[in-house]
Each structure stands twice: as C-alpha cells, then as structure tokens.
Amino acid sequence: MISPLFTTIVIVAGFIFVFMKITSEKPGDGIKSFRERERRANSTLKQPLDDLPFIQVPFEDIPSPEPAVNERCAALFAELNNLAGKKIVNLTGISNTDLKLTYGAANLPILTEYDQNFTSLCMTLHELGCEYKNAGHEDEAILTFNVAVNVGTDISGTYTTLAEMYAEKGLYVEIQRLINCADNIRSLTKSSTIKKLQNIIDSHTSAVIKLSGDDASSETDPDSILPADILDILETVPYKSSDQT
Fold first, then answer.
1. Cα–Cα distance for residue pair 173/7, rounded to 1 Å
2. Which residues of 8-27 are buried (b: 16+ CB within 10 A; e: fewer)?
3. Buried (b) or exposed (e) across 115-147, using 16+ Cβ within 10 A?
4. Using CA atoms, how far apart are residues 147 and 60, in angstroms rounded to an integer?
5. Rounded distance, CA 141 to CA 136, Å?
6. How far apart are the C-alpha atoms of 170 and 164, rounded to whole Å?
7. pTM above threshold 0.90
8. What is the pLDDT of residues 126-169, one digit of tens each?
C-alpha cells in the first residue's frame, strides 16, 4: 500500500515542477518576442516623416521679457528663438523599437533629435516661467507655464508650480484642468504628477473648510464662506485617472 505521505510528496513535487516550468518559460517568451520585434524593426525600410505632429514654438502666447526683468529671462527667450528654427516632435513614451517599426531604422537618429528638441523646449519654458515667477511677474509666469502644458510637457514641476499659483488665487477649477492635461502625457511621471495636483486641491480646500467650521458663532450660511470654485470641486466625484480605472 502506498503511504499517504509518499502520495503527498509526489503531488507537491508535481506542482513545483509545473510552477517552475511556467515561470521559467514566461521570461524566455518575453525576450524572444522582444528580439523578434527588434529584428523586424531593424529591417524596416525608411518611411516618410510628413505625418509627424511637428510643434511650432508659439511665440504669440509667450510673454516677451522686458529689460527690467533680468538677463536670464532674455537669454531663455533667445533659446526659444533658436529652437524655432528646428523641428520639434513630442515622442515621449514611444520606444525606439516602435519608432523603427513605424518610420524605419534609418530614421531613428533624426527622430531622436526631434524628441531632444522637444525636451529642450519644455525645459526652457519651465525655467522661463520660474524666472518670471521669482522676479515677481506672476501673470507672465502663468502664461509661460500654460504654454508648456499646452505643448504637452511632462515636467512635473511645471504643473505643480502653476497649480500652487492657481491655488493662491483660489482658481481650483484651473488645477482640475491641469489634472486633465496631465492625464494625457505619456510619461512615467504621469501618475505622480496627477497625485501631486490632487493633493494641492485637497490641502487648500480642506484648509478653507476647517476655517469655515471654526467660526461657530457666525450666522452666515457655511456655503457662502467657501469660494465658488471650491464648492464646484467638492460637489464633483473624486478624480480618477485613466490608468486607475
């Protein structure tokens, strides 16, 4: 008679064998698939680049620095002028393999250059906005940060700095707009940026609610104490990004 202990050992050993086989095959399959895609990508012929979403530097929306601001603002504006003569494309989040499969391996260097120009545009706009803000030119800073958002920047600091400026003005609906814009970026910073923006809304609205609750002696309707923008936020369903659904 076969002992129950022996039967148990055989069954457990069988499960372990199947588990190890499955787990050992998955990484291999992934590597094999990646190598096959790379092989096809590297053999893809050069394709036209006419359908690329080229970005123009929107000078009509960027405030031009006056001499009274500072020399750094003028230098950054000059950098934007230099970028205006180059081709700019936002390829954030698109792998080199996918780029080669779509446009051909021979086009990868020029596509990388286009993407680097986009990174330079976003960094220059962010720094220019910060310079305006630090110099006390808040309106110019807000306009500049918004240009960066509109071209699709993935720099988290651009969104959060602009959001803090909006919060100080009580423009919470504008921060919600920034959350919607951030939800469209193709960057690893997407989720953390959205979380930071939501935290800015939460921290400022909760502070206002606390202040209104402390005034127990007031006979005023509590809702009238809160800015209209805050009430709009509080009455909406909590934001959930597409990658959380």
1. 66
2. eeeeeeeeeeeeeeeeeeee
3. bebbbbbbbbbbbbbbbbbebebeebbbebbbb
4. 10
5. 9
6. 10
7. no
8. 999 999 999 999 999 999 999 999 999 999 999 999 999 999 99
